[in-house]
Design a protein that fits this description.
Layout: E1 8-11, H1 12-15, E2 21-27, E3 45-51, E4 59-68, E5 73-77, E6 82-83, E7 85-88, H2 97-109, H3 114-124
Length: about 130
């Protein structure tokens, strides 16, 4: 259901039935820091955007940071999500932006988004021969 403010209105129960589909991800293209007397600590950050299944107008995006050790690379959500979703109670009362954003963040943290995002990044930024 759409609201007058162009939000997709869902209950928390409905949100947990949504199947997200990866739309796009990318790296933040920051200007490199000047090198002064040695290496500069840096981080790799980016963004990802997901939609609902075909025909759904739902959109959720967030920023992430790449973390790595000797054995693996993983992505960690580092921002609150932005979305066109407004969560409602079963009686159709809006929960409001702060509560919706917090519940969307918890929802995202329960979704396995990292592998698909990394695969997309590898394809998008692969070196051309």
């Amino acid at each position: 259901m759409m609201s007058d403010a162009d939000y997709i209105c869902l209950t928390a129960t409905q949100l947990h039935t949504v199947r997200l589909v990866h739309c796009i991800s990318g790296l933040d293209e920051d200007t490199p820091l000047p090198l002064v007397g040695g290496a500069v600590q840096t981080t790799i950050t980016g963004y990802t955007e997901w939609t609902g299944v075909a025909g759904s107008l739902l959109s959720i995006g967030w920023d992430w940071q790449m973390l790595a050790d000797r054995h693996s690379v993983l992505l960690k959500r580092v921002s609150m999500p932005s979305s066109n979703v407004m969560l409602h109670t079963a009686s159709h009362a809006a929960l409001g932006a702060p509560a919706t954003t917090g519940l969307l963040a918890s929802f995202i943290d329960g979704v396995a988004w990292q592998d698909q995002t990394l695969q997309h990044l590898r394809r998008r930024y692969a070196a051309s021969p």
